[in-house]
Amino acid sequence: MSVEVKVPQLPESVADATLVGWHKQAGDSVRRDENLVDLETDKVVLEVPAPVSGVISEIKIEDGTTVTAGEVLAIIEQGEVADSKTPDAAQADGELLLPGDDDGGKQSDADGGGADDKSHAADSDADKLSPAVRRVVQENQVDAGSIKGSGKDGRLTKGDVLAHVSDSAAAQDTAPVPGSRNERRVPMTRMRGRIAERMVEAQSTAAMLTSFNEVDLTAVKALRAKYKETFQNEHGVKLGFMSFFVAAAVHALKKFPVVNASMEDKDVIYHDYYDVGIAVSTERGLVVPVLRNVENMTLSDIEQGIRNFAAKARDGKITLEELTGGTFSITNGGVFGSMMSTPILNMPQSAILGMHAIMDRPMAVNGQVEIRPMMYLALTYDHRIIDGADAVQFLVAIKQALEDPARILLQI
Known about the structure:
Layout: E1 2-6, E2 17-22, E3 29-30, E4 35-40, E5 45-49, E6 54-59, E7 66-67, E8 72-78, H1 87-92, H2 115-119, H3 121-127, H4 131-140, H5 158-174, H6 190-205, E9 208-216, H7 218-235, H8 242-255, E10 262-264, E11 267-269, E12 276-278, E13 280-282, E14 285-287, E15 290-291, H9 299-315, H10 320-323, E16 328-332, E17 351-355, E18 359-365, E19 368-382, H11 388-403, H12 406-410
Parallel strand pairs: 12-16, 16-17
Antiparallel strand pairs: 1-8, 2-4, 2-7, 3-6, 4-5, 6-8, 9-19, 10-11, 12-15, 13-14, 17-19, 18-19
Helix pairs in contact: 4-5, 8-9, 8-11
């Protein structure tokens, strides 16, 4: 039976999407729920899974095409697909079983295996490639061992090799040639184009102003050093700096609710909840997933939420729902070495906090010069609804909470 693969219902406010890459080709076997193709919208990349198991008989839409909800992308001839639990089965459906995935291939030094066995691992990889995958590898002269497999148990598929070849070609197209005066014109991705639009919109709509302060992170660093191992053992996640900043921001937002507000027409909308957006840099551009109801979260909840978002962003699995809303944002340029910057508002929010690099600097403390871990903080805010006094006092409240974390616990 023939089954159509259609563009799924797109999120609200998204009219269309761009087909950026097939993971399968006509004639390839697929399993139900296996990702077939990626669709890029203005904000996220959507995966289109196979509705049934079978063989792709026809691909109707090529890469780079703009598509809308309900449009037919491909046709699958439904049928049983052999389970790939062994190297032979992996060869049958175009996957590479990586070394160590098969118990039969594992051999310890005590069993007579060792360096000699490991030295032949790379040679044996080629034998585990299916004919289709091996052909693509040979035609493009790529090292199969350097490609991360997306198949079951990390196995390499034909789509993985093609994606690797495509990425490598794109990198070569955009790489400068030493000594040349050539110019290269590369079209923006939809996400990058949307980011550009939003940045210009923020600058042309809001009356943006930035205030600065600095914070001494001695107390926070001492807490992390004292409890980081206990914290990780108890909660299964590392204790980072970001959770302290998120908690301190919410602590300050409660004192100055206008900083947590937004503007719509001539109305100011106050939010009695705290949904904090955390800026995450990805290969496709900046995304700002939102932690919901942070006022009800512990430090471990915040750390786990940020960790999950980072993993999803890296894998391109952030959903549009996770990027929408938000009442306040935090961006950390310090991870890239930034000392000071003026962040741009994430409209329609009225403020964004910029974190920067932690640097040891000489500071006057009780009449003595001491070396302290210092960070510059920047708060960009919409001066249409936030007065300078509120913005400055908000930053001071964050500074006080970080320099004396007990304030967060005692809510003072």
